[in-house]
Every structure is written in C-alpha cells, then in structure tokens.
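User: Teach me something about this protein's shape.
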Amino acid sequence: MNSPIAIHKLSAQLGLTSRTLRHWESEGLFESGRDCDSGWRVYDETAVLRIRLTALLRKLDIPISDIKKVTGNITNPLSFR
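Assistant: First, the predicted structure itself:
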C-alpha cells in the first residue's frame, strides 16, 4: 500500500480545493486520517479512489446524495480492479 497523501498535495494533484475535500468528507463520502506531526488530513489509497470517483461523478452533475447511495455500497473500491 502507498503511504497516505496530505490534503494539500492531493488537492493540487486532482485540481480540487482543500475546502471541497473537507466538504465531501463531512458529507460522509470518505474518511481521512491525521498526520501525527503536522495534524494535516491525510488520505489512504481507498479514500483517494473514492475521491476520484466522487470528482468524476460531480463533473457529470450527479448530486452528492446520489453519490452517497452508490459509494455507500462499496466496501472496498480496490476490489473492482
């Protein structure tokens, strides 16, 4: 497994704001951890995959409530490989 990625690096990588990531997390679309040294939010591989899926679905104007229904049934997005 890859090491967790910090919120500022992930937001830059995906072209999303950290505010968007925090909002989506507050909506329950994924979970973050915390870096012990900096206190920043960090995301593991599963969270990053959920964020990528959420970003794609939002580009298609799918409401967050519908995204929650879809992703709520996915226990491990890595199993779709």
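Now, about its shape. Helices lie at 7-14, 18-26, 45-59, 64-71. The beta strands are 5-6, 33-34, 41-43. If you'd like, I can walk through any region in more detail.
User: That's plenty for now, thanks!
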